[in-house]
Structure formats: C-alpha cells, structure tokens
C-alpha cells in the first residue's frame, strides 16, 4: 500500500483528510509538528505529502523548504492545506516548493480527484 505523510496538528482535520486518503487506497503516516514531519520523510518515503500551513513550531512553508533542500532523489509532491485564503497566499505556497494547495474545509468526497490531478497519480 502506498503511504502518504500528513502533517497536520488539528485532530479533526487529520481525521477528515485521513478518511479521504484511506478511501483512495492509501496508508497514512501522520505528524503533528513540522519537525516531526521532516524526520518522517526519509523513513517513510511517502508517495506524496499533505502539509498544513499553520503548524506549531515551524510552519508548513518552512517544512516544505526543508524537505525540498533535503531530498536526495526525485521530487516528492507536496500539497498544502490551509485556512489562509488571502491575496498572495497561493504564490507564497508555490514559491516555497508546494505543488498545489487546498483551502479548508476540504471535501472528502472530491479531494482525491484533485490530489491526483496535482500529483499526476493514476488510480
């Protein structure tokens, strides 16, 4: 089973995205902090990463930058989820190295199609 790393500190948001990913046939590895998420990238080798922008400690943008700097091989797709929806946010997210982003709340019934468009995954 392909693994997805979800870096999300809110239990309800984690439950919702995990539900959608499991329905899509993915296993979930989760982290509550950016630091923990960065550590898990090497050991889990996820198919893709979902990262919340507003995390305790380092934020999701810095998490993305650090993952991008540390990638030894390939490029793991990273998708940001955020409740921020202000002018310029999309550009900042993409500039940090994310491949796309979704605004909260997500729709668990349609999110997988959107994720697959971003990651290029065929399911």
TrEMBL record:
Q: Which UniProt keywords apply?
A: Phosphoprotein
Q: Which residues form the Response regulatory domain?
A: 3-119
Taxonomic lineage: Bacteria, Pseudomonadati, Thermodesulfobacteriota, Desulfuromonadia, Desulfuromonadales
Extract the coiled-coil ranges from the record.
Answer: none
Highest rank taxon of the organism:
Bacteria
This protein's name: Response regulatory domain-containing protein
One matching Pfam family is: Response_reg
The PTM 4-aspartylphosphate maps to 52
């Amino acid at each position: 089973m392909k693994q997805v790393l979800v870096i999300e500190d809110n239990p309800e948001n984690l439950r919702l995205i995990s539900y959608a990913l499991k329905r899509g046939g993915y296993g979930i590895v989760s982290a509550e902090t950016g630091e923990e998420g960065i550590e898990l990238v090497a050991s889990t080798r996820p198919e893709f990463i979902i990262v919340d922008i507003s995390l305790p400690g380092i934020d999701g943008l810095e998490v993305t930058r650090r993952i991008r700097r540390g990638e030894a091989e390939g490029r793991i797709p990273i998708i940001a989820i955020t409740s921020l929806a202000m002018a310029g946010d999309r550009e900042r997210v993409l500039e940090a190295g994310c491949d796309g982003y979704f605004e909260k709340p997500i729709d668990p019934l349609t999110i997988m199609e959107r994720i697959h468009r971003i990651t290029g995954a065929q399911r």
